[in-house]
Design brief:
The protein is α/β, with parallel strands linked by helices and 326 residues long. It has 11 helices and 12 strands. It binds nicotinamide-adenine-dinucleotide. Nicotinamide-adenine-dinucleotide (NAD) binds next to α1, α4, β5 and β7.
Protein backbone atom coordinates (compact mmCIF):
# COMPACT_ATOMS: atom_id res chain seq x y z
CA UNK A 1 0.00 0.00 0.00
CA UNK A 2 1.29 3.46 -0.90
CA UNK A 3 0.07 6.39 1.18
CA UNK A 4 0.68 10.03 0.32
CA UNK A 5 0.79 12.18 3.45
CA UNK A 6 0.85 15.96 3.13
CA UNK A 7 2.29 18.15 5.89
CA UNK A 8 4.36 15.25 7.18
CA UNK A 9 7.16 17.48 8.47
CA UNK A 10 4.83 19.18 10.93
CA UNK A 11 3.80 18.13 14.42
CA UNK A 12 1.02 15.57 13.88
CA UNK A 13 2.17 14.52 10.40
CA UNK A 14 5.68 13.59 11.56
CA UNK A 15 4.32 11.70 14.58
CA UNK A 16 1.90 9.87 12.27
CA UNK A 17 4.60 8.90 9.76
CA UNK A 18 6.84 7.52 12.49
CA UNK A 19 3.85 5.71 14.06
CA UNK A 20 2.47 4.11 10.88
CA UNK A 21 5.88 3.02 9.58
CA UNK A 22 6.61 1.31 12.87
CA UNK A 23 3.14 -0.28 13.11
CA UNK A 24 2.96 -1.28 9.43
CA UNK A 25 6.51 -1.66 8.06
CA UNK A 26 5.16 -2.99 4.74
CA UNK A 27 3.51 0.36 3.92
CA UNK A 28 5.28 2.77 1.56
CA UNK A 29 4.89 6.44 2.22
CA UNK A 30 5.26 9.65 0.25
CA UNK A 31 5.53 12.86 2.27
CA UNK A 32 4.62 16.12 0.50
CA UNK A 33 5.51 19.18 2.54
CA UNK A 34 6.39 22.79 1.69
CA UNK A 35 8.71 23.14 4.69
CA UNK A 36 7.05 26.31 5.97
CA UNK A 37 8.25 27.73 9.30
CA UNK A 38 6.31 24.84 10.93
CA UNK A 39 7.68 22.07 8.72
CA UNK A 40 10.93 20.71 9.95
CA UNK A 41 13.06 17.92 8.39
CA UNK A 42 14.65 17.31 11.83
CA UNK A 43 11.27 15.91 12.90
CA UNK A 44 11.87 12.88 10.66
CA UNK A 45 15.66 12.63 10.85
CA UNK A 46 15.35 8.97 11.90
CA UNK A 47 13.01 8.13 8.99
CA UNK A 48 14.45 9.96 5.99
CA UNK A 49 16.81 7.20 4.83
CA UNK A 50 14.18 4.43 4.99
CA UNK A 51 13.60 2.74 1.63
CA UNK A 52 9.81 2.93 1.94
CA UNK A 53 9.84 6.70 2.60
CA UNK A 54 10.06 9.41 -0.09
CA UNK A 55 9.92 13.14 0.47
CA UNK A 56 8.76 15.79 -2.03
CA UNK A 57 9.19 19.44 -1.19
CA UNK A 58 6.43 21.71 -2.49
CA UNK A 59 3.06 23.35 -2.01
CA UNK A 60 -0.18 21.37 -2.01
CA UNK A 61 -1.84 24.21 -3.92
CA UNK A 62 0.68 23.80 -6.77
CA UNK A 63 -1.47 21.80 -9.21
CA UNK A 64 1.33 20.72 -11.57
CA UNK A 65 3.68 19.72 -8.75
CA UNK A 66 0.98 17.55 -7.12
CA UNK A 67 -0.15 16.18 -10.47
CA UNK A 68 3.39 14.99 -11.27
CA UNK A 69 3.49 13.06 -8.00
CA UNK A 70 0.01 11.56 -8.39
CA UNK A 71 0.67 10.63 -12.04
CA UNK A 72 4.01 8.95 -11.39
CA UNK A 73 3.09 6.92 -8.29
CA UNK A 74 0.32 4.44 -7.73
CA UNK A 75 -1.07 6.06 -4.61
CA UNK A 76 -3.76 4.17 -2.68
CA UNK A 77 -4.66 6.86 -0.15
CA UNK A 78 -4.02 10.55 0.51
CA UNK A 79 -4.02 11.88 4.08
CA UNK A 80 -4.05 15.67 4.12
CA UNK A 81 -2.40 17.10 7.24
CA UNK A 82 -0.86 20.10 5.44
CA UNK A 83 -2.24 23.36 6.74
CA UNK A 84 -1.51 26.73 8.18
CA UNK A 85 -2.46 25.97 11.77
CA UNK A 86 -1.90 28.83 14.17
CA UNK A 87 -5.03 30.86 15.02
CA UNK A 88 -3.03 33.96 16.03
CA UNK A 89 -1.25 33.98 12.67
CA UNK A 90 -4.62 33.68 10.88
CA UNK A 91 -5.84 36.76 12.76
CA UNK A 92 -2.72 38.68 11.73
CA UNK A 93 -3.01 37.55 8.08
CA UNK A 94 -5.66 35.18 6.72
CA UNK A 95 -4.32 34.91 3.14
CA UNK A 96 -1.91 31.97 3.61
CA UNK A 97 -4.73 30.09 5.38
CA UNK A 98 -7.02 30.57 2.39
CA UNK A 99 -4.30 29.46 -0.04
CA UNK A 100 -3.12 26.36 1.80
CA UNK A 101 -6.17 25.22 3.71
CA UNK A 102 -8.82 25.89 1.06
CA UNK A 103 -7.08 26.10 -2.34
CA UNK A 104 -4.59 23.37 -1.37
CA UNK A 105 -7.36 21.01 -0.27
CA UNK A 106 -9.20 21.69 -3.51
CA UNK A 107 -6.14 20.81 -5.61
CA UNK A 108 -5.68 17.55 -3.70
CA UNK A 109 -9.35 16.60 -4.09
CA UNK A 110 -9.38 17.44 -7.79
CA UNK A 111 -6.25 15.40 -8.48
CA UNK A 112 -7.28 12.50 -6.23
CA UNK A 113 -10.41 12.28 -8.35
CA UNK A 114 -8.56 12.64 -11.65
CA UNK A 115 -5.99 9.97 -10.74
CA UNK A 116 -8.59 7.63 -9.24
CA UNK A 117 -7.03 7.51 -5.78
CA UNK A 118 -9.09 5.10 -3.69
CA UNK A 119 -9.27 7.03 -0.43
CA UNK A 120 -8.91 10.67 0.62
CA UNK A 121 -8.68 11.51 4.33
CA UNK A 122 -8.99 15.12 5.49
CA UNK A 123 -7.48 16.02 8.85
CA UNK A 124 -9.78 18.61 10.35
CA UNK A 125 -10.36 20.16 13.73
CA UNK A 126 -12.94 20.61 16.51
CA UNK A 127 -12.56 24.36 15.89
CA UNK A 128 -14.87 24.14 12.84
CA UNK A 129 -17.77 23.69 15.29
CA UNK A 130 -17.06 26.97 17.11
CA UNK A 131 -17.57 27.16 20.87
CA UNK A 132 -19.91 25.10 23.06
CA UNK A 133 -21.35 25.49 26.57
CA UNK A 134 -20.99 22.72 29.16
CA UNK A 135 -22.22 20.04 29.54
CA UNK A 136 -22.81 19.74 25.77
CA UNK A 137 -20.15 18.29 23.47
CA UNK A 138 -19.68 18.42 19.72
CA UNK A 139 -20.83 15.37 17.82
CA UNK A 140 -20.47 14.81 14.08
CA UNK A 141 -23.88 16.44 13.44
CA UNK A 142 -23.16 19.63 15.36
CA UNK A 143 -23.50 22.78 13.24
CA UNK A 144 -20.35 24.16 11.65
CA UNK A 145 -19.79 27.65 13.15
CA UNK A 146 -16.13 28.62 12.83
CA UNK A 147 -15.04 31.83 14.56
CA UNK A 148 -11.45 32.48 13.43
CA UNK A 149 -9.97 32.78 9.94
CA UNK A 150 -8.11 29.52 10.71
CA UNK A 151 -11.24 27.57 11.65
CA UNK A 152 -13.21 29.14 8.79
CA UNK A 153 -10.56 27.96 6.32
CA UNK A 154 -10.63 24.45 7.80
CA UNK A 155 -14.45 24.43 7.68
CA UNK A 156 -14.36 25.52 4.03
CA UNK A 157 -12.04 22.62 3.28
CA UNK A 158 -14.42 20.21 5.06
CA UNK A 159 -17.28 21.45 2.88
CA UNK A 160 -15.21 20.89 -0.27
CA UNK A 161 -14.41 17.35 0.90
CA UNK A 162 -18.12 16.68 1.41
CA UNK A 163 -18.94 18.14 -2.01
CA UNK A 164 -16.34 15.96 -3.77
CA UNK A 165 -18.03 12.89 -2.31
CA UNK A 166 -21.61 14.05 -2.97
CA UNK A 167 -20.97 15.43 -6.44
CA UNK A 168 -18.23 13.23 -7.87
CA UNK A 169 -18.30 10.14 -5.63
CA UNK A 170 -14.70 10.54 -4.40
CA UNK A 171 -14.11 8.18 -1.46
CA UNK A 172 -13.54 10.65 1.37
CA UNK A 173 -13.40 10.60 5.18
CA UNK A 174 -13.07 13.65 7.44
CA UNK A 175 -11.48 13.42 10.88
CA UNK A 176 -12.09 16.26 13.34
CA UNK A 177 -9.78 16.23 16.30
CA UNK A 178 -9.38 18.20 19.51
CA UNK A 179 -6.14 19.83 20.72
CA UNK A 180 -3.15 17.52 20.36
CA UNK A 181 0.00 17.62 22.46
CA UNK A 182 3.25 15.70 22.39
CA UNK A 183 6.79 15.88 20.99
CA UNK A 184 7.72 17.87 17.85
CA UNK A 185 5.00 20.52 18.25
CA UNK A 186 6.11 23.93 17.05
CA UNK A 187 6.69 26.12 20.13
CA UNK A 188 4.03 28.70 19.31
CA UNK A 189 1.24 26.39 20.54
CA UNK A 190 0.41 26.71 24.23
CA UNK A 191 2.08 23.59 25.69
CA UNK A 192 5.50 23.74 23.99
CA UNK A 193 5.42 27.57 24.04
CA UNK A 194 4.86 27.77 27.78
CA UNK A 195 7.40 25.01 28.46
CA UNK A 196 10.03 26.83 26.40
CA UNK A 197 9.37 30.16 28.15
CA UNK A 198 9.18 28.71 31.67
CA UNK A 199 12.42 26.77 31.18
CA UNK A 200 14.06 30.18 30.75
CA UNK A 201 12.15 31.65 33.71
CA UNK A 202 10.24 33.94 31.34
CA UNK A 203 6.60 35.00 31.87
CA UNK A 204 3.95 32.85 30.17
CA UNK A 205 1.18 34.94 28.55
CA UNK A 206 -2.29 33.61 29.46
CA UNK A 207 -5.07 35.05 27.27
CA UNK A 208 -7.96 36.90 28.99
CA UNK A 209 -9.13 35.33 32.25
CA UNK A 210 -7.57 31.97 31.35
CA UNK A 211 -10.93 30.21 31.71
CA UNK A 212 -11.08 28.97 28.10
CA UNK A 213 -11.46 25.20 28.07
CA UNK A 214 -9.74 22.84 25.66
CA UNK A 215 -10.10 19.07 25.28
CA UNK A 216 -6.64 17.50 25.03
CA UNK A 217 -5.56 14.31 23.28
CA UNK A 218 -2.06 12.86 23.16
CA UNK A 219 -0.75 12.86 19.59
CA UNK A 220 -0.08 9.10 19.48
CA UNK A 221 -3.71 8.43 20.47
CA UNK A 222 -4.77 10.59 17.53
CA UNK A 223 -2.35 8.68 15.27
CA UNK A 224 -3.96 5.38 16.28
CA UNK A 225 -7.39 6.87 15.44
CA UNK A 226 -6.19 7.93 11.98
CA UNK A 227 -4.73 4.46 11.29
CA UNK A 228 -8.02 2.84 12.32
CA UNK A 229 -9.99 5.18 10.06
CA UNK A 230 -7.61 4.47 7.18
CA UNK A 231 -8.33 0.76 7.64
CA UNK A 232 -12.01 0.77 8.57
CA UNK A 233 -13.47 4.28 8.18
CA UNK A 234 -16.68 4.45 6.18
CA UNK A 235 -16.82 6.48 2.97
CA UNK A 236 -18.16 10.04 3.32
CA UNK A 237 -18.28 9.86 7.13
CA UNK A 238 -16.97 12.37 9.65
CA UNK A 239 -15.31 11.06 12.83
CA UNK A 240 -14.72 13.19 15.92
CA UNK A 241 -11.68 12.37 18.02
CA UNK A 242 -11.20 13.83 21.50
CA UNK A 243 -9.16 13.03 24.55
CA UNK A 244 -12.00 13.23 27.12
CA UNK A 245 -9.71 15.52 29.08
CA UNK A 246 -11.06 19.04 29.48
CA UNK A 247 -9.02 21.65 31.30
CA UNK A 248 -9.02 25.46 31.50
CA UNK A 249 -5.94 27.21 30.15
CA UNK A 250 -5.23 28.55 33.63
CA UNK A 251 -5.26 25.08 35.21
CA UNK A 252 -3.16 23.70 32.36
CA UNK A 253 -0.64 26.51 32.90
CA UNK A 254 -0.51 25.85 36.66
CA UNK A 255 0.02 22.13 35.98
CA UNK A 256 2.85 22.85 33.52
CA UNK A 257 4.57 25.25 35.93
CA UNK A 258 4.27 22.77 38.80
CA UNK A 259 5.72 19.93 36.73
CA UNK A 260 8.56 22.23 35.64
CA UNK A 261 9.21 23.30 39.25
CA UNK A 262 8.44 26.95 38.41
CA UNK A 263 6.36 29.47 40.42
CA UNK A 264 2.80 30.48 39.45
CA UNK A 265 4.04 34.09 39.50
CA UNK A 266 5.36 33.40 35.97
CA UNK A 267 1.73 33.63 34.75
CA UNK A 268 1.03 36.89 32.96
CA UNK A 269 -2.60 37.65 32.04
CA UNK A 270 -2.64 39.41 28.66
CA UNK A 271 -5.35 40.93 26.42
CA UNK A 272 -7.64 38.19 25.10
CA UNK A 273 -7.38 36.86 21.55
CA UNK A 274 -10.16 38.37 19.36
CA UNK A 275 -12.99 35.88 18.72
CA UNK A 276 -11.46 33.51 21.29
CA UNK A 277 -13.61 30.37 21.54
CA UNK A 278 -14.57 29.69 25.15
CA UNK A 279 -14.81 25.92 25.10
CA UNK A 280 -14.21 22.95 22.82
CA UNK A 281 -15.39 19.50 23.88
CA UNK A 282 -15.56 16.47 21.62
CA UNK A 283 -17.93 13.53 21.79
CA UNK A 284 -15.92 10.60 20.39
CA UNK A 285 -18.70 8.00 20.83
CA UNK A 286 -18.92 7.28 17.10
CA UNK A 287 -15.29 6.25 16.55
CA UNK A 288 -15.34 4.29 19.82
CA UNK A 289 -18.55 2.35 19.16
CA UNK A 290 -18.34 1.94 15.38
CA UNK A 291 -14.59 1.39 14.95
CA UNK A 292 -13.54 0.29 18.46
CA UNK A 293 -11.02 3.11 19.02
CA UNK A 294 -9.74 3.63 22.55
CA UNK A 295 -7.30 6.08 23.99
CA UNK A 296 -4.18 4.46 25.39
CA UNK A 297 -2.44 7.37 27.08
CA UNK A 298 -3.23 9.01 30.40
CA UNK A 299 -3.10 12.84 30.20
CA UNK A 300 -0.96 13.43 33.30
CA UNK A 301 1.65 10.84 32.37
CA UNK A 302 1.75 11.88 28.70
CA UNK A 303 2.15 15.52 29.76
CA UNK A 304 5.11 14.64 31.98
CA UNK A 305 6.71 12.68 29.14
CA UNK A 306 6.07 15.58 26.77
CA UNK A 307 7.78 17.99 29.17
CA UNK A 308 10.74 15.60 29.46
CA UNK A 309 10.99 15.49 25.64
CA UNK A 310 11.16 19.30 25.36
CA UNK A 311 13.64 19.49 28.25
CA UNK A 312 15.95 17.05 26.50
CA UNK A 313 15.50 18.71 23.11
CA UNK A 314 16.30 22.33 23.97
CA UNK A 315 18.34 22.74 20.78
CA UNK A 316 15.26 21.70 18.75
CA UNK A 317 13.24 24.45 20.49
CA UNK A 318 15.96 27.10 20.18
CA UNK A 319 16.24 26.59 16.41
CA UNK A 320 12.56 27.36 16.07
CA UNK A 321 11.77 30.22 18.38
CA UNK A 322 12.98 32.92 15.96
CA UNK A 323 9.80 32.73 13.82
CA UNK A 324 7.43 33.09 16.76
CA UNK A 325 4.65 35.62 17.05
CA UNK A 326 4.72 36.62 20.71
N1 LIG B 1 -2.25 20.52 16.42
C1 LIG B 1 -3.50 20.34 16.81
O1 LIG B 1 -3.80 20.40 18.00
C2 LIG B 1 -4.57 20.03 15.80
C3 LIG B 1 -5.85 19.71 16.26
C4 LIG B 1 -6.83 19.37 15.33
C5 LIG B 1 -6.54 19.37 13.98
N2 LIG B 1 -5.30 19.71 13.54
C6 LIG B 1 -5.02 19.65 12.11
O2 LIG B 1 -4.01 18.68 11.92
C7 LIG B 1 -3.18 19.04 10.81
C8 LIG B 1 -1.73 19.07 11.24
O3 LIG B 1 -1.58 20.01 12.30
P1 LIG B 1 -0.16 20.26 12.98
O4 LIG B 1 -0.41 20.77 14.33
O5 LIG B 1 0.71 19.08 12.77
O6 LIG B 1 0.38 21.44 12.07
P2 LIG B 1 1.85 22.06 11.90
O7 LIG B 1 1.66 23.53 11.76
O8 LIG B 1 2.74 21.55 12.96
O9 LIG B 1 2.36 21.43 10.52
C9 LIG B 1 1.79 21.79 9.29
C10 LIG B 1 2.67 21.19 8.20
O10 LIG B 1 2.09 21.51 6.94
C11 LIG B 1 3.11 21.99 6.06
N3 LIG B 1 2.49 22.94 5.13
C12 LIG B 1 1.92 24.14 5.43
N4 LIG B 1 1.47 24.72 4.32
C13 LIG B 1 1.73 23.86 3.30
C14 LIG B 1 1.48 23.90 1.90
N5 LIG B 1 0.86 24.92 1.33
N6 LIG B 1 1.86 22.83 1.16
C15 LIG B 1 2.51 21.78 1.73
N7 LIG B 1 2.81 21.71 3.03
C16 LIG B 1 2.39 22.73 3.81
C17 LIG B 1 4.12 22.67 6.98
O11 LIG B 1 5.40 22.78 6.37
C18 LIG B 1 4.10 21.73 8.19
O12 LIG B 1 5.02 20.69 8.03
C19 LIG B 1 -3.70 20.40 10.32
O13 LIG B 1 -4.54 20.18 9.22
C20 LIG B 1 -4.49 20.94 11.50
O14 LIG B 1 -5.51 21.79 11.08
C21 LIG B 1 -4.30 20.04 14.43
Amino acid sequence: MLIAVTGGLGFIGSNFIRYILSEEPSISLINIDAQTYAGNPDNLADIQSKKNYTYFKGLIQDYHFIEDIFRNHKIDAVINFAAETHVDRSIASAQPFIETNIVGTHVLLELALKHKIKKYIQISTDEVYGSIEPPQKFNENSPIKPNSPYSASKASADHLVRAYYKTYGLDTVTIRCSNNFGPYQYPEKIIPYFISLALENKKVPVYGDGMNIRDWVYVLDFCSAIKLILEKGKTSEVYNVGGDYEITNIDLTKKLLKLLGKPESLMDFVKDRPGHDRRYAMDSTKIKTELGWQRKYNFEQALEETIDWYKSNKAWIEKRTKALIT
